[in-house]
Hints:
The chain is mainly alpha-helical. It is 65% helix and 4% strand.
Amino acid sequence: MDDRDVVERTLEGNVDAFEVLVNRYRGRVYAAALARVYDAQDALDVVQESFIRAFLKLGTLRDRDKFAPWLFAISRRISTDLLRGRWCVEEGELAMKRDSGNHMNAEDPRSGIAARDTAKTLWGLVGQLNEDSREVLSLHYGQQMTVSEISEMTGVRESAVKMRLKKARSVLSDRVGSLQGLWGAATLPQAETGIMAAIKAAGSAKAGMAPASVFAAPALGWLAFLGAFGWASGLDIRRWRDHAPRSMARQAKGINLKSIAWCLGATAFGLFISPYLTRIGAPAQVSYFIVFGVLLTWIFWREIALVSPKEKAKQMVNVLLLVSFFAVMFMNPDKHIFLAVVGCYFAMQFFLINTAQVMQAAVRPGFWVTPMLRRTGDEEPRCVPVEQKRIRPWLTMLHELGLVAPPCKTETNAVTVRLRLRQSTFEKMAFSGYSTLRADTSGAVTCTITPSDYVALAQHFDDEAIPGRRELGATLSRVFKQAFGVYAEGGDSSTVMECLGLTACPMDIRKTRIMFMNKYVLPLGGVLLLVASLIGYFM
């Protein structure tokens, strides 16, 4: 059986099948570990721990044909951790140059070499090489592995393997031939190592659940993350109960739940197709991330159309970080790396928070209609001419208040944007079918209400509480025109809000729960994840 068959049989619950992999690779893992830790008993411990970890994490192995290099990476990491706590380079070199008979037990392969009076000189020469070169020597001379086999197992280019061997030969000179005797002894002792017994004791109850258990913690964390933001958004919706129809607030909460369900569904779909993409190979993975990145860039590019250059830069950085985050989750590397990447992404939100997006999450579509209808009067506001370049900053104010949204349609003397009147899960991706607001250089403002938006809005009002569709467009146009005139004469954001009749509404972004979650809770969680990843890595 090849490695793929053995791995799949093990994941199906046949723990004994894993013994095939143990017998196939324990000699190579032992030889490499001995070259690094320079102690037979420590090398045995590394071998056992490597196979135990590989068994418990077998479900994280995406490419079933790459078990050997994956196992080798685990072994190398364990050897490095062991040396961090108990060895340094100077101590290792001194130990190799001492009388081997006083420091080696009967199981150490170096004891047999010492009996031939060659170990002292040979091990002293080998000790002049670094760990990577000694590792290559052990695999090449002890396990009779070719350069290509070593390259595949260690993940090092063939040219690098050849250079290490060449360097080792130059150091050892005419004693290269003796390496066969030295590393030829580096096979796993035939005495009972208890590897399979330890594996069954450590993971017998987890073997059949390995694939699912790998994603359990991230899935619960992602669910908690979405739930926390849904809860915060719900609190912000409740703050509008005295300013918007109750049925509109209930609908907004329902949209929250639908959005969470869509996010979970998209995550589940990504995890479902990832094994198939991995089996197809690198081209499929690259194509997957390209499509995913283009989709996110397309959505966010529309979102940044009405924000300042500084906010645009932050948003694009956020896109790159988000794509990197999902790429790491897709590759599913070591859990410490995963936690560190997620932690960095969350912590960076303290600096990358976008106030316009936060306000849109706090002020749902249509919430502001009732306060603006109360602001209407019979007097027609006058038009104040403005320059073309001043129209977009005014629309940016409205965007930051959650009243309008991209896309923007720029004409010679006017700019048109979308009015946020209707709840929709995919409103960020829609280009047509929505009501619009058009402002031109003459100071005129025109609101066009689509039938679908009017129907969605009117269902929340009594018959007498909202005018007809055309009348609603005229009323909103009059209020926006007045605010545009105040802005053209030098008014700031507060003055514009007062003209729109929104000063009494919960529009202060600093008091929204969504802002608090994005600005403080999320970065704090990221810092905790970073600390957890560091503690887990060094423990």
